[in-house]
Design brief:
This protein is an alpha/beta fold. Helix content is 61%, strand content 12%. It contains 28 helices and 17 strands. The strands form 3 sheets. Strands 8, 9, 10, 11, 12, 13, 14, 15, 16 and 17 form a 10-stranded mixed sheet that branches. It holds the Pfam family GGDEF.
Length: 776
């Protein structure tokens, strides 16, 4: 079987063979022309360097992350081969000695330096093009120092011989210094290749220095030539062996700055010494000046880069809207606080800030946030750090404060925040909830301290605002609340779905699969309570109250979890679930020959959801329930939160043929304007009026007036909370249309209510279309 090498590999092998052939030809020509021992050694060293270059080129196919470094070392080997080959030819023909070899050695050192710089780059990601400026400056400083020590007349043969040796030595020392630096900062202490690399450079540099001490000559000494050839051969062997590569590591930018400072200082020092030492050494002075300027430029660039980096880091730690610290900076500050015996963290939440955006727009909202941040900074002063956590939430880290001091500062902040804020001609009044946690509560890190302050803030918010100090009892309540919210999310299935998301599109199979996932967290169920017509005693409606059948805590009433659902964005999903169950129940009663009418209560957040119409249409389509048998109940509070949007949404729903009912009438704003604007057909009188109607004449008068108002507007009136015959009789006398309460039945599961309705029908008791209320 015949195999063919890839074209790229073939070209590399061809190039290697040609270069090896050229080197061998040069060596042979040198031997033929003048076969002295010096020439023979130089030619043999050239062939050895070419062999090293060939080995390094052949090993370049191993891509282990360091291959670019070793590719440049291969270039260094070929440069040395060319220089030694040229030196052999020049020596054989009687030309000027040392120039070709020095040029090749300088090229070799430059390639080695570039390879080392690249090695440092892939190991630490610190190097940049300025490293070349550092290398040239360092070489100039070394040459200046060498010329200062070698007191030869410029232009003389001894001076030229010294320059050749100094160039080679300076190049080696720069490469050696770079190798030592990357061994230190790039985590290569365990990499034998790096140590061998540095050792080889040090050995050849020692040979060059010894040759200079003995006496510089233009013709390179044999030991020097052999040392350079041995260096590249050693590197070729190191590459072929391929030691185990180590993972990259981080390094500080100061590591690269120190080398530039040393070079700049050396240049300045040499200039000073050169000025003090008798004798004219212009070359030394020029080289020292080059080193000082180059090092200074490098330091200046590094300082500029560090300043830019500091600015970027500051921006990354600053909130762009307010200019105060952001969450990242706050977490760092809180982490430092957690380890101190005295310190406190305050979490500040602006209550009902969403209403500011909804009413005045986001431009005014942004202005309010900026003003709030400025007031917090002014009140805190130098006692701590103010940060914006996001949205309308801030935090204050106090360096040296006990619980009493922290609470006092929190109250100062609350007073500042509740003062009226003027923005773009608008006056905004804010309320706030502030939670305080001190380091004495045992938090071990930033997350623990922040969680405790956050728990105290929620405790304050549930109490209606103000300042609350963290305590373990409130934390236990907050922890239990978080557990309850997580369980509710699982019970609802996909808690990330918005009300507009149709997660029931797949029908019963998908619903069954969802039920399996929710089994461990209970299920959401609908319990129904009948409504009775006061004229003929018929069952005409039923209110469906949502329940959570919790696996550990039993059946939970809505008061336990509705607030959590609203606060954590689950109300839309919960409403969709109740709507699905209510619609299916109504459709099931319809198949039994008992046509019913269904109503579902909508919260404020549901009315603001653009996808609400799609959710309602989807539930109707899946259950097969006609739209005219669905009623949606809306509270006064939800209507007044954003009247324009509420009116628009209710009209869109009414256009589908769906009925509308106003729930809990009399407990909200009781604005008569929306009664005229909304396409409603029913008012539901809150139970607080029903319970006092018998004993309180004023309440009785309010009920009578409400009945008359509803009838004049063409609406029916339903009274909730009827528990005795006397109250029912009074409501009948006042003209109320329907009643609901324990007098007739307590809330019961949908299946039990269906049986109750069938039994009532079998017993000959009249009934009428059934209405079901949702999340209430």
């Amino acid at each position: 079987m015949t195999t063919t090498s890839p074209p790229r590999v073939t070209r590399r092998r061809t190039r290697t063979a040609v270069l090896l052939g050229v080197s061998a030809a040069l060596a042979a020509a040198a031997l033929v022309l003048r076969g002295t021992a010096s020439v023979t050694l130089t030619a043999a060293a050239s062939a050895g360097a070419a062999l090293a270059g060939g080995l390094l080129g052949g090993a370049a196919r191993h891509r282990d992350g360091d291959h670019v470094t070793w590719r440049w070392i291969g270039v260094a080997a070929w440069g040395l081969a060319a220089g030694l080959g040229g030196e052999a030819v020049v020596a054989a023909t009687g030309g000027p000695r040392g120039v070709a070899f020095t040029a090749g050695a300088a090229l070799t050192a430059a390639a080695l330096y570039h390879g080392l710089v690249h090695w440092n780059r892939i190991r630490t990601e610190l190097s940049d093009p300025g490293d070349w400026l550092n290398g040239v400056s360092a070489a100039a400083a070394l040459l200046a120092l060498g010329n200062l020590l070698v007191r030869a007349d410029p232009g003389s043969e001894a001076w030229w011989a010294a320059q050749l040796g100094l160039v080679r030595l300076a190049a080696l020392l720069v490469a050696l210094g770079t190798a030592g630096t990357i061994v230190t900062i790039a985590g290569l202490r365990r990499d034998l290749r790096a140590w061998a690399f540095a050792a080889g450079l040090a050995a050849v540099a020692s040979v060059e220095a010894a040759a200079l001490l003995v006496g510089p000559t233009t013709a390179p000494r044999s030991v020097v030539v052999a040392g350079w050839a041995a260096l590249v051969l050693l590197l070729a062997v190191l590459r072929v062996g391929r030691a185990r590569a180590l993972p990259p590591r981080e390094a500080a930018s100061e590591d690269t700055t120190s080398g530039a400072v040393v070079v700049m200082g050396a240049g300045v020092g040499i200039l000073v010494v050169d000025a003090l030492v008798p004798g004219d050494q212009p070359v030394s002075s020029v080289l020292a000046a080059v080193a000082a300027v180059g090092g200074g430029a490098r330091v200046l660039r590094l300082v500029t880069d560090l300043a830019q980096l500091a600015a970027v880091r500051q921006e990354a730690r600053t909130d762009p809207l307010t200019g105060v610290a952001n969450r990242r900076a706050l977490v760092e500050q809180a982490g430092a606080l957690a380890s101190r015996p005295r310190g406190a963290l305050l979490v500040v939440d602006l209550d009902r800030f969403k209403e500011v955006n909804d009413r005045f727009g986001h431009a005014v909202g942004d202005g309010v946030i900026r003003s709030a941040a400025a007031r917090l900074q002014g009140a805190v002063g130098g006692r701590g750090v103010v940060a914006r956590l996001g949205g309308d939430e801030f935090a204050v880290a106090l360096d040296d404060a006990d619980a009493e001091t922290a609470v006092a500062i929190a109250r100062d902040l609350l007073r500042e925040l509740t003062r009226p804020i003027g923005v773009e001609g608008r006056v905004v009044r804010l309320e706030a909830s502030i939670g305080v946690a001190t380091t004495a509560v045992g938090a071990r890190d930033a997350a623990g301290l922040l969680r405790r302050a956050d728990a105290a803030m929620y405790d304050a918010k549930q109490a209606g605002g103000g300042v609350r100090l963290y305590d373990r009892e409130s934390d236990a309540r907050a922890h239990e609340e978080r557990r309850l919210v997580d369980a509710l999310r699982h019970a609802l299935g996909d808690d990330r779905r918005a009300p507009g998301a149709d997660r029931h599109a797949a029908g019963g199979d998908r619903r069954a699969a969802g039920g399996d996932r929710r089994a461990g967290h209970g299920r959401i169920a609908v319990h129904l309570q009948p409504q009775v017509d006061l004229d003929d005693g018929r069952v005409v409606a039923a209110e469906a109250l949502v329940r959570w059948e919790h696996p550990e805590r039993g059946v939970l009433p809505p008061a336990v979890f509705l607030g959590l659902a609203e606060e954590h964005g689950l109300m839309g999903r919960l409403t969709a679930e109740v709507l699905e169950q209510a619609a299916r129940a109504a459709a099931a009663w319809d198949t039994e020959g008992q046509p019913v009418r269904v109503a579902v209560n909508l919260s404020t957040s549901c009315l603001e959801e653009p996808g609400l119409v799609g959710v309602v249409e989807g539930a109707l389509a899946r259950s097969g329930l006609p739209a005219d048998r669905l009623v949606l109940e809306i509270t006064e509070t939800s209507l007044m939160h954003d009247p324009d949007r509420a009116v628009e949404m209710t009209h869109r729903l009414a256009n589908l043929g769906i009925g509308l009912s106003i729930d809990d009438y009399g407990t909200g704003y009781s604005s008569l304007a929306y009664l005229n604007d909304l396409p409603a057909e029913e008012l539901k009188l809150d139970r607080s009026f029903t319970a006092r109607a018998l004993a309180d004449p004023r309440t009785r008068a309010i009920v009578a007036g409400t009945v008359e108002l509803a009838h004049h507007l063409g609406l029916r009136l339903v009274a909730e909370g009827v528990e005795d015959r006397e109250t029912e009789e009074l409501l009948r006398e006042l003209g109320c249309d329907r009643v609901q309460g324990y007098l007739h039945a307590r809330p019961m599961p949908a299946e039990a209510f269906a049986r109750w309705l069938r039994d009532r029908s079998t017993a000959g008791r009249p009934h009428a279309p059934l209405a079901v209320e949702g999340v209430a």
